Structures are given as structure tokens and as C-alpha cells.
Amino acid sequence: MRSLALPFAAAVLACVGPAWAGGFEEPLSYRTDGYKAPVPDTLRGARVVDTNEAAALWREKGAVFIDVMPNTPKPVNLPAGTIWRDKVRLDIPGSLWLANVGYGAISEETADYFRQGLESATGSDKSLPILFYCMTNCWMSWNAAKRAIEWGYSAVIWYPLGADGWESANLPLAENRPYVAD
Amino acid sequence: MQSDVFLKLRRSAAVLLFAAATACALAVADPAAAQQSMAGSEKIWESLRGDVVGDRPILVDTGLIRIEAPKRAQDAALVPVDIYIDPARAAGIKAVTMVIDVNPAPVAATFQFGKDAGVTHLSTRVRVNDYSFLRVIAETESGELHMSQTFVKASGGCSAPAAKNSKEALAAMGQMKLRQFVPAADEVMTTSQELQLMIRHPNNSGLQRDPITQYFIPAHFVQNLKISQGDRLILAMEGGISISEDPNFRFDFAAHGTEDIRVEAADTDGKVFTDQWPFDPTGS
User: Fold this and answer.
1) Which residue, B125, B142, B109, B132, is CA-closest to B40?
2) A2 interfaces chain B, CB cutoff of 8 Å
């Protein structure tokens, strides 16, 4: 039977390819480009959860959910009369959406926004569980979770499958808007 | 006996491999996912069309105008688009609006053609932010709206970093190049010419991040463009954030006389660039 299982497994692996999370070492530093790509299985210092575990945390309110999907604000200098549509973001209900905090390098302004957003979500309690996500095969959540760990948050959870993994398990999504700092 | 068992095993293995390969093919080409994107794009368009054309009826695929683009773009920041206009009805067109449903500023450009310019084909390159319909809507002199659409799989075009570094791009900004093509042998007796205009301009969308400072680069693009032969308008464009870096337009037109080809372009910073070239009916 082993001789059968091997070619089968090999075929499945070969086909799954990019959708296969992991199978490689997590990098030492932030991912700074090609954010939409397979992610590692692990993040040092964080607990990695699948959709079932994330859903359990969500139902029990066992963690603060942080969506880090990037967002492009409307440029201030567009010609008058330009028709503009903000992209509608559907994410896990009750999440705080901290946009653009998952890039590999962020400006001081974005870092302040991220810090303030986390403080407001956790009541400045760094031991409170916080769960980071964006989309499947998106490094933004990996980066953001890593950043939070470096800032001293001690119960960081990473949900790599993100909003589309959540949706494909028939769990509800809700329209959200990026958090606006005070 | 032993070889029989072996054969059976091999057959089962082949079946398993086949099953795995089938599962794989299904997973890769998920038709439902594509459908959903088309429906999503259509839904955005429905919410948008009032702002673009009001509540006037739109005639679809009448043959008056047609848009073509690759089904899957190699570079979402440089998606080639071709617009074809029925030569018999070209003179009756007042304006052509190009829309990319999912782009945050969905109206990519509006074109106007000279009365007797005879433009029947125009191609350019656009940024596409996500799987989307690309549409062209022609408005006729009598007020009819004719639309053609095509679905393009591309993503991230609006925020893709510029191909050139900003210093290089700013130094060359406004430089233009015009190519004039020899009419094909069977067209020599006609007055139809083909031109390609290339303008050096970063055409920043306002959605690109500066890789050094991590801030968004302000929008800065060619907003108005006018191409004429002498004083006769060939085509004019009001452009948005979706026209690609180094705007490039290739089009045919009906030449009138031998006057120069003149171009005037103005960008969102109020900079005006002009250039002109002797008209060359033999191509250059």
C-alpha cells in the first residue's frame, strides 16, 4: 500500500503547489514584496490557527480580531469631478480593520496608526489575545503579527487563511471600513 | 501470480494518479470563482452607471464600437486595450468613454474625435486593479449610447510600482515620440494613416507607494491630451489614473492635406507639453 500512497501524495503535492501553505522555513525578517504568495506554516512567537480554531475564538470572543488588508485611500489631488469608489471590504464581523500595517516596511505615521489601533482594541493590555488575518496566501498578516510580537504583545495569534478561508467555511462576513485614528 | 498482483497495484496507482490530477485541474480552473468575479464586476458597474451615463438606456454589442483586451493580463499595470469603431458610423460619434469597473476611479478616459478624423481604431495601455470588465461606451450625435465590454483577469495594476525610478521619469517627463506608419499596400489609395504617440510621463495613479519613504506617491497624470493635424482635431482625451505609465496611443486617422501633426498634453500639476512633427504620408 505504501507504494500506492507515495505517488498519490506526490501528485497531490505537485498540483496543490502555490495553495499549499508552508513546507518552507519562515524568514527571519519581514516580507517586503510579492505579498500575495504562499506563506510559511509558522510565525515565531505566535500561535497559528486554522478556520475551526479561529471560529471558536470568534464565538467565545477569545481574541480581538484584526484585519490587516491593505487599502488605498483616495488621492487628495484628483481632478474635481473624478468618480471614485472605495473598495468594499468584507471581513470577519467585529474585526478592527487596520489598513496597510502589514507592509514589510511602514512609515512612522503608519506605525503610529498601528500602535494606536492595537491600544484601542486591547485597552493597552499587551497580554490580551489578538488574532491577525487578511487573505489566504497573503503575507500582510504574517508581517503585522510579527510586528505586534516585536512590540511586546504576548498572545499573538495568526490566522493565515484569512477572510476567504473564513468565507469558504460558510462563516459570515460583514462590510467593514478602515479604522480611523483619533 | 505475483505479476498479476503487481499489475493490479499499478492499475490502482494509475487510477489514483488520475483522480489526483483531475482534482487538481478542478481546483486550478474553478469556473465558479471566475463567474463570481464577473458578477461582482457587473454589480459594481450597475452601481456606477448612473454616475457615468445617467439613467439613459445603453445598447450593447451593436457593432458600432468594440473593445478587445487579453483575457489574462501579463502585467496588470500595462494591459493593452484596442477600441474598434465601425468606419461607416465613425463620423456620428460624439465621445467614447472607457470604464474599468473595479478601479477606484473607474472612468479610465474619455475620447473625442475630430468630425472628419476618421478614427476607427485606437489602442492604449491601462492599469487594471482586479478581475474586471473593461467597457467602452460610445455616445452618438443623436444621443444613443452603445457599449462593448470584455473581461480581463489582472490584479494590482493601480498600485504596481513604476517601472522607472522617479528621478529618471521626472527628467524625461513630457518628451514625446511620434511614429508614422506606411499604409498597407492595399490601402495606398486611401488617405488612412496610422500614428503612434508615446509620451514620457510617470502618470502616477496616487495609489503607488514610494518604496523608500513608504508614503503614497501623489496622483500625477496626463489629464488632457489633444492630437491634431494643423488645426483639425484628430483626437482628444481626458485621462484618469488608469492610463499606464508613459502613455502610448496608436490610432488610424484620415489625413487632410499635409499639415504638421501637433500634440498638446496637460498634466494634473498644470504642466503643459507640446510637440509637432511634419506629416509624412509615406510613413517614417
Assistant:
1) B132
2) no
Does the residue B282 lie in any domain?
no
CATH code of residue B26: 2.60.40.2470
B256 is a domain residue: yes
Q: What's the number of domains chain B is made of?
A: 1
- C-alpha span between A89 and A66 (Å, rounded): 13
Provide the residue-wise pLDDT of chain B in tens; the chain has 284 residues. 444 444 444 444 444 444 444 443 333 333 334 445 899 899 999 999 999 999 999 999 999 999 999 999 999 999 999 999 999 999 999 999 999 999 999 999 999 999 899 999 999 999 999 999 999 999 999 999 999 999 999 988 888 888 888 888 888 999 999 999 876 655 555 567 899 999 999 999 999 988 888 889 999 999 999 999 999 999 999 999 999 999 999 999 999 889 999 999 999 999 999 999 999 887 65
- Facing residue for B214 by CB, picked from A8, A11, A110: A110
CA distance B94 to B124: 19
| Residue B235 falls inside a structural domain | yes
The grid coordinates of residue A107 equal 512609515
B96-113 burial code (b ≥16 CB/10 A, e <16): bbbbbbbbbbbbbbbbbb
Contacts of A107 in chain B (CB under 8 A): 213-215
Between A7, A72, A85, which is nearest B13 by CB?
A7
Is B283 part of a structural domain of the chain?
Answer: no
* A107 vs B: CB within 8 A: yes
Contacts of B32 in chain A (CB under 8 A): none
ipTM tops 0.90: no
CB distance B16–A19 less than 8 Å?
no
Full domain range(s) for residue B163: 4-277
Q: Is A80 on the interface with B (CB under 8 A)?
A: no
